[in-house]
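Sample 1 of the test manifest.
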Amino acid sequence: DIQMTQSPSTLSASVGDRVTITCRASQNIGIWLAWYQQKPGKAPKLLIFKASSLESGVSSRFSGSGSGTEFTLSISSLQPDDFATYYCQQYQTDWTFGQGTKVEIK
Amino acid sequence: EVQLVQSEAEVKKPGESLRISCKVSGDISTTAWIIWVRQMPGKGLEWMGRIDPSNSYTKYSAALPGHVSFSADKSINTAYLQWTRLEASDTAIYYCAGALSIAHPTGDWWGQGTLVSVSS
């Protein structure tokens, strides 16, 4: 099975900050990596697919990069609506999620 | 656009059976897979498996307990997640997601989630 390791688990930041979340795969997954945002009591929302492709309607503040085993999600200028939990997910073989990164207000 | 609407929250006792639903509306011809995801209280997302709504082909997670299964009724565009006998450890929110791609599916659309509470 492919394991996904996200870091950090929690990230404290202020409005306007640039934040970066890292995700590592236990084996080469090419570009088959997605990022989701989840707010309390809500379903996950797809932000990024194929490692760096922005889902339609998602703010350009979000960007993804990486390939193989190392990936990052960046938010260029954190907005109040961005405080949430973010998950990476590999979909090269079935799905595996990272454990999540909670972005909280500093 | 595709919409997924899930059935309401359930409160059950251990040993009981249950079936929850995920109804697909909109341009259903674009939905290659319905995927089920579990989120236990305060925890992260876990992939349970997927089902092709057109022919009910299923792929289960190796970690899925034997008392859990998926089904689909393409005549009413609905997928189901069912338990033959519930356990307390089945308490969770269950999400269905719809995927466009056959080969490399992502969660393109999501249902609102169904909370299943199992307690004696």
